[in-house]
Design goal:
The protein is α/β, with parallel strands linked by helices and about 240 residues long. The protein folds into 2 domains: about 120 residues, Response regulator (Rossmann fold), CATH 3.40.50.2300; about 100 residues, Winged helix-like DNA-binding domain superfamily/Winged helix DNA-binding domain (Arc Repressor Mutant, subunit A, Orthogonal Bundle), CATH 1.10.10. The termini are far apart. About 5% of the residues have low confidence.
Length: about 240
Amino acid sequence: MPEEKPHILLVEDEIHLARGICFNLEQENCRVSHVESGEEALERLKYDRFSLVILDVMLPGMDGFKVCKEIRQMDTRVPVLILTARSEEGDRITGLESGADDYLTKPFSLSEFLLRVGGMLRRSSWYRPEPVEEAYRFGDNEVFLLSYHAKTAQGEIDLTELEVKMLAFFFQREGEAITRKALLEKVWGYSSNTETRTLDNFIVRLRKYFEPNPANPVYFQTVRGVGYRFSRGAREA
């Protein structure tokens, strides 16, 4: 048989939905472990390794945002996809601030769900970023891509696998205007016709980490009608 199946942890208390998700992921050659609460998920993560965590927000007991924060204390790299019935922009941002890599609102189509999962699994299948440089400096920041952490003006932070991959991509193409399409394809692994606000919210997260004034970014700049540009030579006002 080919290589080992990706192992996914599904945290979902709606049994009918969970059964459908498990069935479809198994059809895609994945192995799925299903738990119904955040507390059970955190127990599983103590002794098992997963390629991806799919996490509902509305759970009994600890909610998904809190569970996501706890997961990030335990493992900064495992990709996390949040599922929720909430559609407000504020909830999407809360999910990403909790450490999630992407966000999908219920009800979602099966094809969109499998697209997101497939992209996240492709990313998690190679855990090492390209060695751009061990200490990459800009402004008051030092980013250590190989050890997944950074020193910023606010203190030291651990970086997720997706954050590392996005930063490496920006650093390799410093000064270039990078299209949204390229970022979604190269970082998230999504096809070019996918539209998601996750990218924009993710840039907000990076600005919060690294910009002297996130509302007036000097390093992670928006290029109107195109996408984003990283420049470490930017002068602070």
